Amino acid sequence: MQLRHLRITVIFLLLLQLGSCSKESENTLEDTLLVEGCDSFEAFSPNLNTNPIDFECRGISFLNQDELNDSNPDGVWGVFGGTIEIDYRDNPLADAINNSPKVLAITEDSSNLPWSGFFFDLEEPIQFKDQKTAISIQVFSKVKGQSVLLKLENSNNSNQYKELTQITTTENQWERLTYHFSAADSNSFDRLVLIMNSTFQNTEQMTYYLDSITLTVPKEVPAATASFTDLVWSDEFDYQGRPDETKWHHQTFAPNNGSWFNGELQHYVDRQENTYVSDGTLKIKAIKESYTIQSTTKDYTSARLNSKYSMTYGKIEVRAKLPSGAGTWPAIWTLGANIDEPGNFYGDSQGSVGWPLCGEIDIMEQNGWDKTQVYGHFHWGNTATSAYENYGKIATVANTSSEFHLFSLVWTETELQIFIDEELNVTLENTALNPYDNPHYLLLNIAVGGSLGGTVPANFSQEVMEVDYVRFYQ
Predict the structure, then answer these.
(1) Rounded Cα distance, 243 and 266, in Å
(2) Residues identified as active-site
(3) Residue 142 belongs to domain spanning
(4) I want to staple 109 with a disulfide (CB 3.0 to 4.6 A). Which of 9, 83, 160, 403 is the partner?
């Protein structure tokens, strides 16, 4: 997962100003209490190449004398982004996935920054060989849908790193998350960085549990199960002026008592200033300006487009360039046409089951604080229980504001797959328990602020998402 702009590097550089980050490979733990049944733990810095890191043998984890800080520049572990406590605890739930007596507990305060976390150094750089080109981690989270970011770093050069993110799919259960690397990443990284929730800021103190960090063989990644080549609807934006009214509907009615949901700060409007086509692309522009709709005044305007075409199963492609400014939340996504949201193009013509029972597919979302992060996510209501469920992943994509990238969805009766530049990002099995068997329509928009937009800088003026084309295939 990608922490380039989560400012870990800044934290490390601040620490490095206090002294060298070099490891003391001869450091031993003769004074450390051992968990009953453990023989020894020969060195503080574990060696992932020879053994899994299972946190069983050390009676006291991450001793203070080993912490990298101003009084100990040669330390081999550290925390950043807020108040974090790390210690060994009893396994909160011994089950078939993890029956270890002891696990690592990470407790973060509610005031912590979204990118708060901790790191520790390894005895030697990781070697990906013998087909073991992935790292798996057992995770126990009290909340479903939390992102767990793993960053591999060179302890002597914080600019040399690689990071991946996985998202928890259960709550109060152990699960194993797998991060795929490659043989080319061998012998480059001797530091592990872990951020337990890089997506949202905690609203209360949270404790996460980790165990069994292991080199492993990558999971099988299914290939696309269908090839859709019949172009059934598209807009190439090869004209000038307003978006084609036969293809697009501007959704402007604010359904949450004059506002939109998720704490968003904008009004969506139908104006030339906010949506227009020129030089072969559609522009959706968020502007800082006072605007009143439904007796509610907001400080920003933007646009939210609905496609006047919906389909069940097929392929959707959107080639787009994303806004660069902080505080923007661009999205390329779909909703079931049977949603009862007022002001959308379909009204109740396709049904009125509401959200999340209609199903939502986020082909692309981007947060407002790290423009290298691109989200692929599914939200739905369980068709048997009506309970809210979700699943997704975060990918690292460079140059999202300076280059066009292709975001696409392949949707069949058995699975849904989201791709970025034709590389698979996330797959969801399509079962009878989720509602992805009904027509969906496409939405294009930029939100300002809100839960995924984050803080809007004071000097915000305007930001643009540019769309080269939209294509539906069956």
Answers:
(1) 20
(2) 360, 365
(3) 8-216
(4) 83
